[in-house]
Each structure stands twice: as structure tokens, then as C-alpha cells.
Amino acid sequence: MRALDFEYMWDLVPVLLGYVPLTLFMSLVGMFFALILASVLAVERVFRVPVLDVFVRLFISFFRGTPLLVQLFLFYYGLPQVLSFLTTINGVTATIMGLTLHFSAYMAESIRAAILGVDRSQWEAAQAVGMTQGQMMGHIILPQAARVAAPTLVNYFIDMIKGTSLAFTLGVTELMGAAQKEAAGSFLYFEAFLVVAAIYWIMVEALSFSQRHLETYLNKAYAR
Amino acid sequence: MTSKAGISIEGLNKSFGETAVLKNINLDIAPGERVVVIGPSGTGKSTLLRCLNFLDRPDSGTIRVGDLTVDPANASRSDILALRRRTSFVFQNYALFANKTARENIAQALITVKGQSKADAMARADETLRETGLADKANSYPAALSGGQQQRVGIGRAMALDADLMLFDEPTSALDPEWVGEVLDLMRRVAEQRQTMLIVTHEMQFAREIADRIVFMSDGQIVEQGKPEQLLEAPEDPRTKAFLRRVAKVGLE
Is the pTM of this model over 0.90? Predict the structure, then answer.
């Protein structure tokens, strides 16, 4: 047994913090597109549009049913062999694509459940005042579903932040990749990955903190 | 007040599964006329109202509002939307938009459905809130309002739409007794504006006061109709007589 090299860890912190923006970039962009895609998928699943529904169910089934890592390899290493225009796809883009598609499949299901949980009277009132289905979803149903779905969606976002570490397997030097390189030079693997773990942990804790504010905001209409 | 269209319902039928809930309903309502529907529970009164704006899709028959004729056999989505935009609906359980303030509940449809500017819609909403005596509750969410207040916003939301026909589906049935009076008062004021109204209610005294005509329904059919004093005091059909006797007994208790 040897003592931890705290000085090495301390010096490593600013180096690795430099990669946090990339991690945040990939997870924020991924989350942004995943939320949009998941909402579209969820609304489709609620209305069960003929024909389209088959494809949506297939999509959700595939992206929930296969590991994220396999999906990332398919996009980055596999697809360019089949689709020639994708030869220039870079690791960051492939990661964002993978995260978006993978998590949208999960999030679609929790948004769908939240939509179905919105009281029937809300749908009927929106119909009765003459709203189109789009207006009803946009103004009445989705905002109310968001409140119910928020805690689970934040959970997926946390998962997505951590999922960006897989970009390292696509040759992207992000947080995980950088730590790997540093450790390979110093052989202080434990120290390097401990710092990485701490940085992820702190990011997720910061997010949990803002989650409380988000939930207070979403609950403001329901306070008595 | 802008001139409004009358409503004509012809041969309306509706079944839920094997159960026929509406059987060949025919009813004409003149512009400005206030019609109250009474009858035993489960005789299709609410379903009739809900069929008139396709919350429940009728099986057959026609609904005519002004120059718009809607037939469930071939009603398109835009027909249904047009019909809903010529009617407004007050729900038994208020059904205010839970994520909107009182003001937004009224303004929302004016903006999204009627295409008014946000400023115009908000001004109209504030005016309506004053009429309903809720000016101080403009920024309250439904969860913070009493049942009576919620229903007054619900009526305000329907009033602001300025529809050809206002439908009231037992608007006081879900209320605690202490709130019934204020809701009926508001409905009286709506009635005074000669707004065309079709009201399902169990409030007999109220019906007698404001109705131009009372329709008695039983087993999915219109059994009898007439002026309030005629129908309430000299009903002809035995089913009407039996119903009114039962209601009178309850009233005396």
C-alpha cells in the first residue's frame, strides 16, 4: 500500500477542469435535442398516428434495447462504412447524436406517461374552447406533463452527463480521455480517476441543486 | 351585442357500447333563447351537451349553428373545430387550466383560438374578471381559488369567447352549497344579456326564473317541453310528473 499523491491530484484539477466545458457542451446539446425529440415521440405515442407509430415504437425499442456504447460504435465506426457522406463525422458529433437518440427513447416513455397522467378535464377544456391538438398540447397538456416528468428527466440528464465519458472510446479527449492520458504518463491511475470521479460528482450535485429550483418553478401553479 | 345564430339539432343519436344514451333528439334554440334541460340522472342530459361540441361524438344526426352544419357521418376535424368555436362550455368540475392563472384561463383561448393580440386578450380577460367579481384574483392559480371562484372563472372563460351558444353542464352540482348562490347569480347576469344558453341543472327554482323554455328528458329522449310555469306546474307526461314530485320532496326536506 502507498500513500495518495495529493500534490499530483491537486495539480491535475485545473488540467481536467479545462475539459469540463466540452462535457457540458455535449450533455447540454444532447439534452436539448433529446428533449425535443422525446416530446415529439411521446406525443406521437399518445395519439398513435397510423404507420408512423410502428416506426416510433421500433425506434424506442431499438434505442432502449441496445447499450449506449454499442450505439456510439455503430454511429462512429459503423455508419461511415455504409453511408459515405458520414466519413467526416467526428467523435463529438457522434457522441451527441448517440446520446440524443439513446436518451430520447427513454425520455419519450416518461413524457408519454406524464401526458397520460394529465387530468381528462384539461383535455376536454382545451377542446371545448376550440384549440387545435397542437395548441392543446403546447399550451395546456405538455406544460402540465413537464411538472410530472421533471424529476425523471433530470435523472436522465444526470445519466447523460456521465454518458459523455463514453466519447473517450471514440477518441475524443474529454474529461475521461484526458485523465486516461495523464495517468498513462504518471502511472498514478487511482489519483487521476479519483479526480475525474470528484469532478463528475460535483457537476451532478450542482445540477441536483438547480433541480430544486426547477421543481419549485414548475409547482408554482399548484401551491395553495 | 353582435347578432348571433340559432341552433338546430336534428335526429341526434348516441350510444355508448350497447346502451343508447340519446335517442333521436330534435331541438331548435332561437338566438337569445335560454333553455334549461332537466330530468333524472343518467338520462343523457350531459351527453346531449357534450355531443353538441363533439366532446362526445354523436353517432348520427345533424347540428346546425347558423350556416354551419355538422353531421357526425362526415364531420372533418375542421368542422368539429368550427363547431367548438361557435359554442362555449361550462363544466361541472370547472376544468380550469391548472397551469394558468385566472386571467390566463380567460385570455388563452382569445389569443390562440381567436387570434387576438396578447394585450387585447388580457384587457378582455380583466374586464371579464371584473364582471365576475374576481378582479382581485387575476393572478391566482385555480388551486388557490374556492370552488365558487373557480366556476366563476370557468363561466368567465366561456363568456369571453362570445359564442353563439353557451353550454352549461350542471355548473353548480360539484359546488359546496355555500358557493352555489354566487355562481347562479353570475349565470343570471349572463342570461340578462340575452346570451343563448343551454343549461343542464338540478336547480329548479333557478330554472323557473331564467328559462324561456324547459326541456324534460328521460331515457335519452325529450319527453316534454314548454314554458317554465307550464312544464313545472302543469306537466302532461306521467314521467315528468313523477320526476317533479320526487324533486319537490327533496326540496321540502
Answer: no
